[in-house]
Amino acid sequence: MNILDKITRDKRIEVALRKNLIPVSQLEQSVLFERPTVSLANNLRQSKTGIIAEHKRRSPSKSVINNTLNVQDVAKGYEDAGVCGMSVLTDGKYFGGSLDDLLTARASCNLPLLRKEFIIDEYQLLEAKAYGADVILLIAAILSRDEIKAFSEFAKSLNLDVLLEVHNEEELHKSVMPSLDMLGVNNRNLKTFEVSLETSKSLSSMIPDDFVKVSESGISNVEAIKTLQPFGYQGFLIGENFMKTDNPGVNATQFIKNLEL
Ligand SMILES: O=P(O)(O)OC[C@@H](O)[C@@H](O)c1c[nH]c2ccccc12
């Protein structure tokens, strides 16, 4: 069984348990349900740099990235750096994240927040909303076309932006539909952890222009972004490169300064 299958199998169990713990009616009572969301897609369209900075403690591919930081400092640091949005891993078992991390990030900055999660159930979209997200991720590798349609339409009804992630041509063709806002190409194969920016380059021309194109993973320098921009990418999701330092915000500030030169 590959790691993605393992994660989704565990996720189904986790979500079933969560549903019993916190009923939908309670999620809907969150004050954050009334909060007007901020569109990451709009921010990216208007930005010259397009950085989406991630909070990521560890990952199945790298084990520990950073265990000592607190979410509040990271969120404020990213906001001060001038990023377009922040991604918050909420998976606990494989990434060391939580919905509390999302809530803390929400309380610490005004950036659009992406709930970085393995979404397999509409219940998780209600959680995203209740804990302060503005954007949700849908991963084509673990969803059918019907699920992508149902989840993205439900997200739109909650005023959440949708980032759909693909890794190959087949996933892309399966997924294209009007209820998506952004198309993300993951440079990392989630089944093998292999990383190559060539994935973003080769899929770019097959992504219709109505979607904001986002390149995800393995971006470790400004040069990578400069080579991806001519392929139409307006968003760049960066985790490890910022998180592996003692001060991700300062690191992001310097990165964005270099990018603007
Ligand atoms: O740390 P990196 O290589 O900069 O990658 C960030 C982000 O793209 C990565 O965390 C990611 C992309 N898609 C995902 C899906 C699930 C979990 C994590 C991810």
UniProtKB/TrEMBL annotation:
Nucleotide-binding among keywords: no
Short name of one Pfam family: IGPS
GO BP terms in the entry: L-tryptophan biosynthetic process
InterPro entries: Aldolase_TIM, Indole-3-glycerol_P_synth, Indole-3-glycerol_P_synth_dom, RibuloseP-bd_barrel
Positions of the Indole-3-glycerol phosphate synthase domain: 4-249
Catalyses which reaction(s): 1-(2-carboxyphenylamino)-1-deoxy-D-ribulose 5-phosphate + H(+) = (1S,2R)-1-C-(indol-3-yl)glycerol 3-phosphate + CO2 + H2O
Biological or metabolic pathway of the protein: Amino-acid biosynthesis; L-tryptophan biosynthesis; L-tryptophan from chorismate: step 4/5
GO molecular function: indole-3-glycerol-phosphate synthase activity; phosphoribosylanthranilate isomerase activity
Keyword set, alphabetical order: Amino-acid biosynthesis, Aromatic amino acid biosynthesis, Decarboxylase, Lyase, Tryptophan biosynthesis
EC number: 4.1.1.48
CDD domains: IGPS
UniProt record similarity statement: Belongs to the TrpC family.
NCBIfam families referenced in this protein's UniProt entry, alphabetically: PRK00278.2-4
Protein name: Indole-3-glycerol phosphate synthase
Protein's organism: Algibacter mikhailovii
